[in-house]
Structures are given as C-alpha cells and as structure tokens.
Design goal:
The protein is mainly α. Helices cover about 80% and strands about 0% of the residues.
C-alpha cells in the first residue's frame, strides 16, 4: 500500500555522519596536543559545527517547530552553549593558551556535543526524513552537499 513504507534515513544518516566528523576533528587535535597541537583539525571541526548548527536552525528546525517545539527549544539552547564554548576555544587558540587549558576546553566541548547528539540523533533527525516536505528535504540535502553559512551568522541562542 502506497504511503505505508517506512521513511528512509538518508538525511538522518548524513546529519549523524557530520556529527561523527566534527567529533573526529576535535579528537585528532587532542591526540596531537602534546606534540605541539596543530590547530587546523580543531578549527576545521569548529567551522563545520557552526555550519551544522546553521543548517539545523535554518533548514531543519523551522518546518519541524509546530510538532517538536519543546525538543527544538532544548536543541536551540544547547546550540547556544556549544557556540559559546567554541568562541572561548577560538579565543584561547588565538591567545596561545596553554595546552592543559585547551585540552580541558576541548574535552568539555566533546562532552556537550555527546549529550546534545544523544538527544538530537534519535529524536530530531528521524523527523527530517519522515516529516519534511519534498522541497524542504531537497533544500536540506543540497545544503548538506555544498552549502556554506553566511559570514558573521550566529545561532539563535548564542
């Protein structure tokens, strides 16, 4: 019967892969921190996380808001926490803070991400494939493939 097939998971899977890639970049930075700590993987991951937050707040959350308002409120609040954490880490990198401080800040960011992702992946992401219109899914998929976020953009709760 048409319309009863389970929704695909293409968007949920792509969004989850971005989470894993972001975590991996932070972890790569931490792994090399004692040997001088090339900040490139960390900066790339934080840029990717900012882009990821943009795509969620611009493409994913608005159409889901009517049915997921409370869950999205939590996600937005946590985005603000993540954003402020990234701002602090970038300031520490720019001021050549000591390795111990950077390690602690990055571990705290990973902890925030883990807590956030454990809620977002099973609760919000499945709705991307199941509830978004064809047009909204196409826009999100297109942005996932090649989109960039506007310079100077900050998340709603930053």
């Amino acid at each position: 019967m048409a319309g009863t097939e389970p929704a695909g998971t293409e968007l949920a899977d792509a969004l989850t892969r971005e989470h894993h890639a972001i975590d991996a970049g932070i972890e790569a930075y931490l792994a090399g921190l004692d040997a001088g700590g090339d900040p490139a993987p960390l900066r790339e991951s934080m840029h990717a996380l900012r882009r990821h937050i943009y795509l969620e707040e611009s493409f994913l959350f608005p159409p889901l808001k009517p049915t997921m308002m409370m869950a999205l409120f939590v996600m937005l609040r946590e985005h603000g926490e993540l954003w402020r954490s990234m701002d602090a880490i970038e300031a520490s990198l720019d001021s050549a803070a000591d390795a111990a401080s950077l390690r602690t800040a990055c571990q705290e960011l990973l902890t925030l991400l883990d807590s956030h992702n454990q809620k977002e992946e099973p609760v919000v992401y499945p709705r991307a494939d199941a509830d978004l219109s064809d047009e909204a899914r196409a826009q999100l998929a297109e942005f996932l493939d090649a989109g960039t976020f506007p310079e100077g953009w900050t998340c709603e709760k930053a």
